[in-house]
Specification:
35% helix, 3-stranded mixed beta sheet, D-Amino Acid Oxidase, Chain A, domain 2, 2 domains, alpha+beta
Length: 379
Amino acid sequence: MTQTYPAAGAFWTPFSSGVTPAEEKDLSYQTLKFYTQWRGSPRHDVGVVWRTVEQYWVQGQFQRPAWSAFAEINYQPLPHGDDFIENKTTGLSYRCECCYQAPVIQVARFRAWYLALLQQRPQVELITAWPYPFLNVASHETAAAGTATAGAATAGTATAGAATAGAAAAATACEQAWVDLLRQHDISQLVLCTGTGTHYFRLYDQDKLEQTKIQFRKGVVARVAAQPGPEERVLVYEGGPFATNSLYVVPQDDGYVVGGTVHPTEFDYAARDWEVLPAERAGILERAATYLPEPCQSKLAAAGFWEHRADVAIDWRVGVRPYLEGLGPRVVPAESIAARLEKRLARKLSVYVHFGHGGSGFTFCQDTAAHVAQALGLS
C-alpha cells in the first residue's frame, strides 16, 4: 500500500476490473459484506463512510450489472430523460443511469485500523518494510549498461546482452535482500503482496510466473483540498476508452479525489510510469470541466483545481497496479522462489504470490484475503 494508496479513489465499485460480469459479482461480494459488518460501529473507527454513487454512462452502452442485485447497496435505476452531457472533444454523450449506496474508504484511517486488526492475530506477522534494493539495480544499472553498449556498438545483440546482465543483477540483489530479511523472522509461510514488485519475481521464477499474463495499469488522480459535505455523492462517468473518457470524483476526509486515466502500461520502473504526463493532466481537467455538476464544480474551482499557479497545491498522484489479465485476483504458489530461498535459509519455506487487483483492491480485497487464509490453512 505504500506506493499506491495515496493515489486511490478508494470506494467499492466493481467496474473495469478485467474479469467477467459474473466474476465481478462473486469477487466483490465478500468485501462488501466485510464493510457492511463494520458499518456504523460505535466502538471502532474503521474509516469507512457510506455514500451515494451516481453512475453516468455513454449513451447506448449501459447494461445493468449483475452486482446490482446486492441488497446492501440499494441499487436504483434512474428514469431516462434527455439530460445528456456531451463531450465535444470525443463526441460522446453521458447520462446518469443509476445510483446506489457504497462504502468510501478514508484510506489513512482505514489503513491504521486494518493493520492493527491484523496484528492482533498471533499466527500472522506483517513485514511492511519490503526489501527493494533491486529496484535501483533494475532501473538504473540496466539502463546505464544499455546506454553504454548502444554507444559503443550498433549490434542489437550487445544491447540485449547488457539488459540481460542487468536483469540478472536485479534478480540476485532481490534474492539476497529477501534472504537477509527472512533470517530475521521465524516464519514457515510467506505471502508476497508486493504490488509492482511482482514484476521482478518473474526474473527468477520463470517456470511458472512468466507463464501468467501479468499486466500493469497506470492511474492518475488529483487530490484537491476542499471540504466535502456529508451528503455529497461519488460521481462516476464510464464508457468509451477508459484512458481518455472516464472520470470519477470521490469525497474523502481531507478533500476530493478526481481521477480517470486507467490504462495499461509496459511497466519497467521507468520514470515515465510514475509521472503525470501533460496529456493525462489536461484530459482530467477537461473532462471535469465538462461533466461535473454544481456544487462540486464550484468547490473544485474555489480550491484552484483548474488554475496553474505556484501557490495552488493540487496534489497529483500516480498509481501503477498489477493484475492478471482476464483472470482477476489470484494467489498462487511460487515453488521456484521457495526452493531458492529454502536452499539459502536451510529451512522449509512455502511462498505464495498475490498478483494484485489492477486498481480494484478496495472492491476485491476480502475475497483475496479469504484465498490467502485458505492457502495457509488459517481460519
